[in-house]
Amino acid sequence: MNTAFLHSVSLRPPGDGEPERSGHPWTLPVVEALAAETLALDPAVTFLVGENGSGKSTLIEALAGAAGMNVEGGSSNFAFSTREQEGGLGDALRLARGIRRPRTDFFLRAESLFNAATYLEGMRAEPFGSGALDAYGGRSLHDQSHGESFLAVVLNRFGPDGLYLLDEPEAALSAQNCLTLLRRMHELVSDGAQFVVATHSPVLLAYPGATIYELSADGIEQVAYDDAAPVQLTRAFLAAPDAFVRRLLDAS
Which of 15, 55, 96, 249 has CB 3.0 to 4.6 Å from 28, enough for a Cys bridge? Predict the structure, then answer.
């Protein structure tokens, strides 16, 4: 039995009176693909890979909004916003939900963790007091490095039976701490959690049994770990870094 919180995602047809779907993000190949096909989500871990501009972050942000989370980061209980959100993609997504409901949720994006940390600082005022940080290790995220604060959220705030969306977590983490994240993901999956992760990291992509979708100009394609572009490129580079860089620079 599939015990996922989210079984799949697709794009619903435009409704009567709805603004025209033109420009970004509607012209992204991944969005056009979702209008034609349903994207199945792994009950454990789903990865989204693709070049910059392929729509990974756009899709995972829209997923967060459709699932009720704050699109700038945080849980469904976070109520801050630093800019007006445009596009309406989250409102246009159709989520097929499981019979289980997550006990907790969180959208963790490296680029806006500072804003989420600032929101938490504000929650330290009454009526929440210092207890607002208890679920994050009891220490202000602003008093830690970017990577430390990112891990503090994952290690302390994330818990069993949760739905977690991560946008390029490797941007905040060293290679060693990508391994720490990988182990924590496994612990949480074993306790009923589900992850959807946009990433460029071949380390994270190695999660056993994960479903990997590659986003490109052709839309969405499921690929094996060995065929994922970040894995192939990293292997080619590490196999002969001097020759790789020499060919790259000579080509310029």
Answer: 55
Report the greatest alpha carbon distance in the chain: 62
Averages of pLDDT over runs of 10 residues in the chain (252 residues) are 84 83 90 94 97 92 91 70 63 93 87 52 50 52 60 86 94 90 96 96 97 96 97 95 91 69
Bond prior to 230 in cis (omega within 30° of 0): no
Q: Does domain 27-224 have CATH number 1.10.760?
A: no
Whether the CB-CB separation of 25 and 192 falls below 8 Å is answered with: no
How far, rounded to the nearest angstrom, does the alpha carbon of residue 194 sit from its chain's CA centroid? 11
CA distance 39 to 10: 6
Give the span between the Cα atoms of 164 and 159, in whole angstroms. Answer: 10
The answer to whether 104 touches 156, Cβ cutoff 8 Å, is: no
